[in-house]
Structures
1.
Amino acid sequence: MSDPNKAAIAAEKEALNLKLPPVVHPPENIGVDTPAQSKLLNYRRSKEQQKKINQLVMDEARRNLDRTLGKRTPQVPEPDYPSTMTSEIKKKGFHYIFMKQCVESSPIVPIQQEWLDHMLMLIPKSLKEGKEREDLLESLINEVSSDFENSMKRYLVQSVLVKPPVKWLEDEGGPLPESPVVLDYSNPWHSSYVQARNQILSNLHIVHPTMKILLDLGYKTFADTVLLDLTGIRAKGPIDCELLKTDLSIQARKAEEKIMNTWYPKVINLFTKKEALEGIKPEKLDAFYNCVSTLMSNQVNAFYIYVK
């Protein structure tokens, strides 16, 4: 190969090995107003000059006002009363009155409408009919609302302020009511209550439901029963003791037969049912029947002699 060809090939290789600079792309925000550009475009020198002029005018006006106020005569303080006219007690009284007015001017929660409605429900309907009575009810409601508001103000004053010992101050209506004394439940009581309740139910047989049924039977049977009727005996006039004894014995025997034929079978029928001994333990049966016997004896002893 000739030398000219070698020189051309070498020149081409040298051209290929030549490094070109990187490609630079245009910015993306080209043609868009940036904050700096917007500030520059919106700038007006006339506005800046106007701000400076306004500031100078305000400063000058402030200096003139200070000069004018400095030339004024200072205000003379209000003369105080001599010590002989305003004593310490009087000052305390005036101070208390001022503080009381401040407390009373605070907002007060009005009476609830539900309370007023409940009070109106207690009034019979016949007393609420008519124009005059409606006006009277309205005046009563206003009076109750006013009394409630005054009571709340009085309570607020007495709970916030301490009244000084000044005689000429008006009475506030007596001391505040004391808090009600309630039972102390700070210690646990439920377990002891349940224990006492169970003990009462197991030992106090008079509270058993069967005893109530027995009492009802006695009331129904003995309500109109007369053991001895002396009206007929008095009508006979004087009578021998033996004859009186015989008549009374006959009446008592008849009353006994009536009781044994009416009341006693019902009692026997009551205690033959299983429900009568419900909740009674076997070891408590004797005590339970003793209670029944005592109750029946008291009912029989409650008989009275009808005397007319």
Note: The CA atoms of residues 202 and 280 lie 7 Å apart.
2.
Amino acid sequence: MLMLTHTYLLQKVLGTADVKNGDLDIYVYNIVPDLLTIHPQINSAQTHKIKRSLDIPASYSKASYVIFHLLVDDLAHYGYICPDCKEEFDPNSQGYSYVKGKPLIHSILELYNTIQKEISYNDAAYSSHLIIEMIYDLVILTHMNSIKTVDLLAEAINFTAKNKMDEFSATINWLYDLGENEVKEVMKEASFYITKERMERIMNIDGRVRLYTNKFGLKTDEKVLYDGVKKLFLQARALLDEDDELFLLEAAQIIKNYGWFPPLT
């Protein structure tokens, strides 16, 4: 799932818990597996390889929120919590994003055939899950707006960059063995890109089409391509409209049963 969905779910899990302004950095830890990929030499395979049952020292307790992110992604990608990172790609995964995305695979293959670009079945399956996750933010947008998720994430990034970098860098170094300069570089980029204005700019179908085409190096100035990708996102939204928050509600319960609770800080 994308950063805003992860942020919204953590807000819901914490519920009425008193998250003080001085603890806003927990929302940044919660998106670290995606956030670190801003760095050109870091990919999602690296950030998702952490053992879910990792014994976290009290001095790095906020790393627990990174684990929370990974548990959610496990359910979205595999359909169950994985003790260790899975390296082999399975286009028939029973994770929520892949199950929901399966009807898109044929449409993706057809689109690529129309624009005369090659794509394998596995790559089409991967793309289908990504489209589902990109559209999920929009499906739950009303819910996110009701608790100001976009505002919160932007504020958390800004707060962490200004006030918590020593602690944040030390924790990420312990968890991922990344140097302080690398972490600072990521947060510098995050402070520029993850703002309320920039996030709101892509909280619509056209914004999602641009995200998708940019990721895969496709040219949106080709009308056939743009219309085709937009049609994929509209199809994806129709696949999710009936679910609304169902996946998140189920994920929260499974993670609770697994034994994850907010750390005492």
Note: The chain is about 65% helix and 0% strand.
3.
Amino acid sequence: MDSKNLDITKSSGEKVKFSLTKLRSSLKRSGADQNLINSIIDTVRDELYQGISTKEIYNRAYALLKKQKHIYASKYKLKKAIYELGPTGFPFEKFVASILYYSGYEVEVNKIVQGRCVSHEVDVIARKNESFIVVECKFHSEEGRNCDVKVPLYINSRYQDLLSVSKMEGNKTIIPNECWVVTNTRFTKDAMQYATCIGLHIISWDYPLDNGIKDRIDRLGLYPITVSTLLSNREKQFLLSRDIVLCKELLEDKFYLDHLGISENRQKNILEEIKLLCNTTELCQN
């Protein structure tokens, strides 16, 4: 079947044309070499059928990558790994705070801030030089649930309430000068249009171009612990409950693997996988 004329089904149920370019791009992000990418594309293309789901395509490509090298599969499953930070949104908030921290910001998580009318729980507060940013995180544990215009409308109303109150820090008046909304999915067209109009800074999985969540993760090497292909779901949830959200944090607190009763040999394999994930930057040190 000609892949150019093939309709595939997204998680939302929407039908779209299959894109060989998108598949190639996602495989390239895994770190796989060109020969392996071409081989996987040939295999997947031969198995396509009209109406196939994006999940099936992902699962097949993931399995083929995993057969070759675990590190490729780990990077390829990044988007799914972010969903696995749930079901609550707190690990995602901590994850967003970590991205900002390793981008040079001072950060605080889950702070109560008094507005003019009411107090507000702010997911992340970030400061660097003259920037004082309040960040609201919108986490979805299921694919296909995008943020519509009601999200920036609501968050902007809270932000305006915070702007109405002057705060003193020493002899200096401090008020936020930026508001960010970060989601692990996407924003609808109306949400993006509204945010742009009023000056809200929005970040989604792939927006802004080259500076979305996936780009920042790759650039900083801040992979969530859920990308591991060697840890079980139970083990990942245990680590998340101990505030181990990043791979680099497990390298710093290896003793949790003992708490989980993981054998020495398996620990070695897990830590090798995680070191490889962090190897693109100097952020993760043994």
Note: The chain has a mean pLDDT of 90.
